Every structure is written in C-alpha cells, then in structure tokens.
C-alpha cells in the first residue's frame, strides 16, 4: 500500500488553540487520509507520541516551554527517523538553517490564506511516503539478512556470471569450506563432473528466467566427498522485471535419499517446501508474511496482518509460545534456543502441521520486531510412519484386494499371486505354490477357459512384449462371464516387471444392460399416448430391466376396483392360475397398493393354499404404481429378487407413474380444449342472437316510445311492454346457455315421476293435463333434468294450446315426453334444436336448444318424432337407470 491508501496520523503541536483547530479542519476536510491529533505544548505532544502511533509531527517554533527545534531534538532521541515538519510564523534564514541542522524533515512558514494548508498537506504526504518506504526497505533488508544468516539451509548468492558472491554459515558447513574460500568461484567448483551438463542447463535457464528453480543433484565437498543436495533457486528482480541477483537455498539430503531408496517402488521423492517468513510485533501480532504462508497454512498473507501469531498454532503450541514470549519480553531471557524449534502448527482447515521455526529479533524505527522462518517438516516427521504403513499395507494388499492379482518379473517368473486370482480361474494350487512358476506356461493352461484361447494368448504376449499399459480391457470367457483386465509395467530393483489384475465384471455388465433398458423404457413411456400403451411398454420393460421371463402389469380401472392386465402380452396368471385378489383386505396386492411399499416373495411355493404348487413361477415382485395400481413380476427361480432388483423396479414403476400422469394431463388438456371450443361456438351463437334477435324488439321499443312522445298516445307503450318482455325472455335464455354450458357434474339417482310432478306445478298449465307413465329412477343432474322437463312442457303448451295433454313414459334405454298437439312437421325437425329457431312469433327460440344442451351434457341422445295421437314426441335415449 502507498501512503494514499493508508491513514496518516499527524501530531500538531501548536500553543494557539484557534489556529490549531483551523489547521485540523482544513487538513481533515481536504485530505480524508489525514487524522490530526493536537497538543498545546511539547510535553503534551511527547505524551501523545507515547500513547499512540504517529506518522508525522507538525510543530510551531515559538512555544512557552521550549521552541520547536528543542522539541525536535527531544523527539529525535527516541524517534530518530519520524518525519518532523517545522511550521512556524517566525520565518528567517537563521531559524531555517538551525532547523535543517537539527534534522528537521521539512520547513514551512505560516502565511495568509487557505492555500498554505494544501501545501502543508502535500508536505505531510511526501514526508510520510518517504518515511514508510524507508522503513519497509529496512525491514525487507533485515528479514533478508536474517534469512541469509540464520537459515538452517545453505544459501548462496550468485553474481551475474554465476560465480559465488557470498554463502552463509550453513552453506559453508554443508560444503565443508571455510569463510571466504568460495567467494568468486564458479558453480562448477561444487558440482560433480557427471552432472555438470545437467546443472549447466539449469544455470542457463536461471540466467534467462525460463526455469531451473528446483533441482536435486550431486555436489562435491571441499574434502572431495560426494553429497546429494536439494536446491531451490529464486530470481530477485527490480520493478521493471530485470534480474538483480539470484539466490539458491540448498540442503544436504544424502541421508534422506539413502532412506528413500527403500520406498522407490511405492512413492516419489520427497520435495522440501519453501520457507514461510513472518514478522511479529511485541503484541504478538503478525506485521508481514510472504506468499509461502498460504501454501503452508491456507491463509493469504493479507489475511494474517494484525492477527495473533498463535493463529498458526494449535492450542498446546500457542500456550507454550505465549508463556515463552511473555517471559522473554519481561526478562529478556530465552527459555529455549530459538534456532530450529520443532513445534506443531495448525492449518486453516484444522489439520496440524509439524514445523521447524527459527526466530530472531530486529529493531526497526525504534520498534522491536521478531522475524520467524518457518519450515514444513511434515514429510520428515512422517517418514518412519509412512515406511511402516507402506510395509504393512504391502504385506496384506494381495489378500485383501477384491480382484485377482499376479506379478511377474522380466523373465516371466511369477513373483506373487493372491487367492482371489485362484478363485476366478479355479486354480487348485495355493497362491504361494505359484511363486517361481513360469507365467507363460500358466497362461497357456488358463487360455482354454476363454472364448478365444488363441486370441487370449496372442494379446498377452503382445502386451508383455511391448510393455503396453492396459486399463479396463474386457475379455470374454467360454462360460459367458466377462473379466476386466489391467496391466501395468513396473520397475523392480533388479529390472522391469509386469503387474496384472483380473476382475469379474459379469454382474456389472448385467447391471449396465439393465440400466440401459430402463433408460430406453423411460423414453418410450414419455412418448406413450394411452394407458394401454403404457401397460404394453411396462411389461416388456419389466422383462428386460428385471431379467424375467413372465410378467404382468396392471392398471386401476376408472371405478378404482378392478385391475386390467396389459393386452396382447403373456400374463403371469397364465402360469400361476387366478390373479391375486385386488380388494380391500389383507392380500399382498392390496397391501402394496395401500402402503406404497414394494414386496418381494422369494419362493411362493411355500404357500400352496394361495399359489398353484405346479406353477413354474417361484418368486414374485410387487411394485406400487400409486393410484394407478401395481406392477407384478414373476420369476421361475427362487431367491431371484435382491436390493438391485427392488431399486430398478422402483425406478421402472416411477417412470410408469410419470407416464400415466402425463397421459391424464394430456386428457385434461384435450377436455379443456373441447370445452373452450364449445364455449367459442356458444359465443359465436350468442353474438348472432344479440345482433339479430334482440335488435328487433329493441327497435320496436325505441320506435314506439318516440311515437308516444310525438302523439301523446299511451297505447304505444303496450307494444313497448311486449318488446321488453320479449327481450327479457331472450336474455334469460341466453344467460342459461352461457352460465350452465353443456357439461353435467353432479349426477345422482332421480325419481323421474316425482320430479315431473314438481315441474308441472312450476309451469302455468291452465287446462292442460299431465299423464305420467313411469316409475323409474335415472342417473342425472337433478336441476338440469328439471330444466329439461319444464322446457319440454312449456314447448307443448306454446304449440298445442292450453288444453294439451303431456305424457311422460319409459323407453328401453330412456324415456319420452309427448303431447297431443299438431306435432312437428318432418321438414323442420332438423332445425328445431337450433338456438333462436321458433315457429311461435312470441317465443325466444332457445327452449329446445337448452333441452338439447342438457341432453348432450349427460351423454344422452334426443330425437323428435310423431306422438301416439299425432302430436310431437321427444325421445331421450342412452340413459342410465338408477
């Protein structure tokens, strides 16, 4: 961060309180980053310096206790580098000269006007920026120096020509040289002859900035002894990216390399992690951290600034550190050496990290800081545990793996085999007996078990001859099984070898095939357009998905009681006899339907009272289909259904239910479309009636009213009244058609004779007669049936006169309503049900249209013919009797 990004705390020492307040207002108003703390006297200013962190001092010259230069001298005793600006109204060359000699950072004379405060703010910014940059540079130098001198690793700084510029004590000790002996010598001095070409390439990469940052190579000590060292090389660049110098950290890993040869076949070489470097103040809080902290502890460096250093430690380590650190600050005594302390740190994720820590103290700008170099020694501390674990795992690995394993050396001699391999190939020998045998001979004997013996041997020889890695290669056996084979070329201490594994994938392939069948079925069910199609697809799918040879799928009928087997498919009941009961009770079928829980029966022959003991079906699986019924699958083999079958069966049942729900939704959409179509037709019809039939009586009413106004003759109003009655009747019938539509919802058993009697009482019948020749009850919507009867009765009265006889009687499939009037001419019988059609000038023409709509809503049919006595006879058929 630059000074513009950090708040600046300014101490202003000024005995004139009003002027001090004015300076504070201008500095804090114009510069958000500046915070002013005012002191009236130098002594008060010194107390503020002690109490809080100050970035710059602005002081007057003339003050009661001491002048500004004397105050400066006092400040410099404790804070030799703190920016100090002399801001005074007593300006003279003498004062300026004295101030510069005393070490003042800047000198500014008070003037008139407010522009001086802007100048003062700029001077403060410049002084603090330079001060902070100097401190940061000094801190960086001190950390680098501590890293160089105190690091337990060897460190070399190289010149531009890659000669040794300097080397630390650890480096000289590793290489066996005295101080000053290596300075100015080439890198070749410490590199073994056999590795100079390789190291030369690394040097070129470092010089060009293209790599070479890590290497392990053989080095030569001063006494000629060869050692193995691990090197971490770092480029130091300036702001323009130019390489300023190159540092190399290295350590002698000869002993570690020797130990690691025991694990050459089981693990890669251990690479040392880069060091984490932090600085900590006296309050035990982190002031800076480098990038390696994130890799080691999981924190970004910026996250740690201001946090306690114990954030990086577990509770026990943190407690010991606090006690040790507190004692040192109080007494100056160390309770233990601070060089290469082994402690236990804590990663951000809570895991513990073994560490080696070196701490050193530095003084920066009068402030004590502690620099820590932290090295992750996880690999070193875990080495023995890992070696023990690896040996234990290797000793048990062959016998615990669920696959067949065989290892052979370069000469095709068997090195190891496990019992599972013997089980797969039915080999009678023990695993230990195969060790030392000729693998080529064993393979030749085993080839007869494969579907293609010659192909098996040719492929094995090809893999071995060319050292081909193989992963997941399938081979088919003569008995129908499928094995999956892998081969891995391996390096052995005395040459190359081959590691083979074989795994029986027969069950896995079967599961995959069944899942593919389930996926295909799901797609087919999505495209099914009827319940019957769903049933057909479901039965076929049950055979493929569950691997069975006899199945039945059932759907619930509309009445919710009976089961319907899929048409055209062999039913399980052709093999086991009568189907299980699907009525409410304790039957398996009903329990599955009610509870929604699948049931598998391993051997149905155990219950001969329910199942046919001669049936080839041995096991059954019942799967719920929700409200639609159940799926019943049968198998000729006992103990067929396992958890995988149940899981696949539930998925299949779920797909069937989804398909049925989709079909129901489509049916509802079709019904809705039909309903909307009917509504649109009625709207068109209404528009025609409104535009035509209502217009005539409306014109009559308007014309008669005008005539009454012009002539004063009130007889015209009689015609207006008749027109209004005509319009009212039309509107009532229109509302009936619009509100009720054609659909019937509430169906119940209705006594036709009783309902007809009530209807006759509602109609103004004068001298007319009702003859009831029925005692039946029919399934109908009572209110809609009442409207139908009343309209037919009114129609008879309107067309046959007040003394008409209306007869209601039974038909084989319905009932009839007839009168003894003039009847309906044959040539108009096809039109009388049209909305608005009427042979009576006073009629609306909607009565029979409403009758036809009610009949259609019930799913009935209506025809008109001649009555018994020559009148009109309306026959309603397709009626259900209750």
TrEMBL record:
Coiled-coil regions listed: 656-686
Transmembrane segments: none
Protein's recorded name: histidine kinase
Source taxon at top rank: Archaea
Catalysed reactions, as listed in the record: ATP + protein L-histidine = ADP + protein N-phospho-L-histidine
Keywords in alphabetical order: Coiled coil, Kinase, Phosphoprotein, Transferase, Two-component regulatory system
Biological-process GO terms, alphabetical: regulation of DNA-templated transcription
GO molecular function, one term: phosphorelay sensor kinase activity
Response regulatory domain mapped to chain residues: 9-125
All copies of domain PAS, residue ranges: 140-210, 262-332
Annotated InterPro entries: CheY-like_superfamily (IPR011006), GAF (IPR003018), GAF-like_dom_sf (IPR029016), HATPase_C_sf (IPR036890), HATPase_dom (IPR003594), His_kinase_dom (IPR005467), HisK_dim/P_dom (IPR003661), HisK_dim/P_sf (IPR036097)
SUPFAM superfamilies (UniProt xref): ATPase domain of HSP90 chaperone/DNA topoisomerase II/histidine kinase, CheY-like, GAF domain-like, Homodimeric domain of signal transducing histidine kinase, PYP-like sensor domain (PAS domain)
Organism field: Halosegnis longus
Residue numbers of 4-aspartylphosphate PTMs: 60
Entry EC no(s): 2.7.13.3
Stretches assigned to the PAC domain: 213-265, 339-389
Start and end residues of each Histidine kinase domain: 689-877
């Amino acid at each position: 961060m630059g000074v513009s990004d950090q708040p600046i705390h300014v101490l202003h020492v000024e005995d004139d309180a009003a002027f001090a307040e004015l300076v504070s207002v201008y500095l804090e108003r114009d510069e958000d980053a500046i915070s002013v703390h005012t002191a009236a006297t130098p002594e008060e200013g010194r107390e503020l310096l002690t109490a809080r962190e100050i970035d710059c001092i602005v002081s007057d010259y003339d003050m009661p206790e001491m002048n500004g230069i004397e105050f400066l001298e006092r400040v410099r005793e404790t804070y030799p580098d703190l920016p100090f600006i002399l801001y005074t109204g007593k300006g003279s060359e003498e004062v300026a000269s004295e101030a510069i000699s005393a070490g003042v950072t800047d000198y500014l004379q008070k003037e008139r006007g407010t522009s001086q405060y802007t100048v003062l703010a700029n001077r403060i910014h410049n002084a603090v920026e330079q001060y902070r940059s100097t401190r940061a540079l000094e801190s960086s130098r001190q950390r680098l120096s501590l890293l160089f001198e105190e690091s337990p690793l060897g460190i070399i700084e190289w010149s531009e020509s890659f000669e040794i510029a300097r080397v630390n004590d650890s480096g000289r000790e590793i290489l066996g040289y005295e101080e000053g002996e290596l300075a100015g010598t080439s890198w070749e001095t410490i590199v073994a002859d056999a590795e100079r070409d390789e190291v030369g390439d690394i040097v070129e990469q470092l010089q060009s900035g293209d790599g070479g940052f890590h290497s392990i190579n053989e080095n030569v000590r001063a006494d000629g002894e060869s050692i193995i060292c691990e090197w971490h090389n770092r480029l130091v660049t300036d702001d323009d990216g130019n390489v300023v110098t190159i540092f190399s950290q290295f350590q002698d890993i000869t002993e570690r390399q020797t130990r690691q040869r025991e694990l050459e076949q089981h693990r890669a070489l251990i690479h040392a992690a880069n060091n984490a470097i932090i600085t900590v103040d006296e309050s035990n809080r982190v002031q800076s951290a480098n990038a390696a902290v994130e890799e080691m502890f999981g924190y970004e460096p910026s996250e740690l600034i201001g946090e306690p250093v114990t954030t990086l430690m577990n509770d026990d380590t943190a407690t010991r550190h606090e006690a040790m650190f507190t004692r040192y600050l109080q007494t100056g005594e160390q309770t233990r050496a601070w060089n290469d302390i082994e402690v236990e740190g804590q990663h951000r994720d809570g895991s513990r990290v073994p560490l080696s820590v070196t701490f050193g103290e530095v003084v920066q700008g009068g402030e004590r800081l502690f620099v820590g170099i932290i090295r992750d020694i996880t690999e070193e501390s875990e080495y023995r545990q890992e070696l023990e674990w690896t040996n234990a795992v290797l000793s048990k690995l062959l016998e615990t793996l669920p696959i067949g394993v065989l290892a052979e050396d370069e000469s095709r001699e068997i090195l190891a085999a496990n019992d599972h391999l013997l089980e797969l190939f039915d080999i009678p020998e023990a695993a230990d007996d195969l060790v030392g045998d000729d693998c080529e001979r064993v393979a030749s004997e085993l080839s007869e078990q494969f579907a293609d013996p010659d192909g098996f041997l040719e492929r094995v020889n090809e893999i071995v001859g060319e050292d081909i890695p193989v992963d997941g290669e399938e081979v088919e056996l003569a008995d129908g099984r499928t094995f999956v084979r892998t081969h891995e070329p391996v390096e052995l201490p005395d040459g190359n070898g081959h590691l083979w594994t074989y795994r029986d994938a027969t069950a896995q392939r079967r599961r995959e095939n069944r899942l593919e069948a389930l996926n295909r079925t799901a797609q087919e069910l999505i495209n099914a357009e009827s319940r019957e199609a769903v049933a057909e697809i479901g039965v076929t799918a049950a055979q493929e998905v569950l691997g069975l040879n006899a199945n039945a799928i059932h759907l619930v009928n509309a009445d919710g009681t009976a089961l319907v087997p899929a048409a055209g498919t062999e039913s399980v009941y052709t093999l086991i006899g009568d189907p299980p009961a699907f009525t409410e009770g304790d039957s398996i079928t009903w329990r599955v339907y009610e509870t929604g829980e699948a049931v598998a029966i391993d051997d149905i022959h155990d219950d001969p009272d329910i199942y046919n003991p001669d049936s080839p079906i041995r096991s059954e699986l019942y799967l719920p289909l929700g409200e639609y019924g159940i799926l019943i699958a049968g198998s000729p083999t006992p103990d067929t259904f396992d958890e995988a079958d149940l899981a696949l069966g539930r998925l299949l049942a779920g797909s069937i239910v989804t398909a049925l729900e989709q079909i129901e939704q489509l049916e509802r959409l079709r019904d809705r479309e039909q309903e909307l179509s009917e509504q649109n037709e009625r709207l068109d019809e209404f528009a025609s009636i409104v535009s035509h039939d209502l217009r005539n009586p409306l014109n009559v009413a308007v014309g008669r009213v005008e005539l009454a106004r012009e002539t004063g003759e009130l007889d015209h109003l009689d015609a207006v009244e008749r027109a209004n009655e005509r319009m009212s009747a039309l509107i009532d019938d229109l509302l009936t058609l619009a509100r009720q539509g054609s659909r019937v919802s509430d169906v119940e058993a209705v006594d036709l004779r009783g309902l007809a009697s009530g209807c006759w009482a509602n109609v103004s019948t004068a001298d007319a007669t009702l003859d009831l020749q029925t005692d039946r009850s029919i399934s109908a919507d009572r209110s809609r049936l009442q409207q139908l009867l009343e309209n037919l009765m009114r129609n008879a009265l309107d067309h046959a006169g007040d003394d008409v006889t209306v007869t209601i009687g039974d038909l084989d499939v319905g009932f009839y309503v007839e009168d003894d009037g003039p009847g309906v001419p044959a040539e108009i019988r096809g039109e009388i049900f049209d909305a608005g059609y009427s042979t009576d000038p006073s009629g609306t023409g909607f009565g029979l249209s409403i009758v036809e709509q009610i009949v259609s809503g019930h799913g009935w049919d209506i025809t008109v013919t001649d009555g018994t006595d020559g009148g009109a006879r309306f026959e309603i058929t397709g009626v259900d009797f209750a």
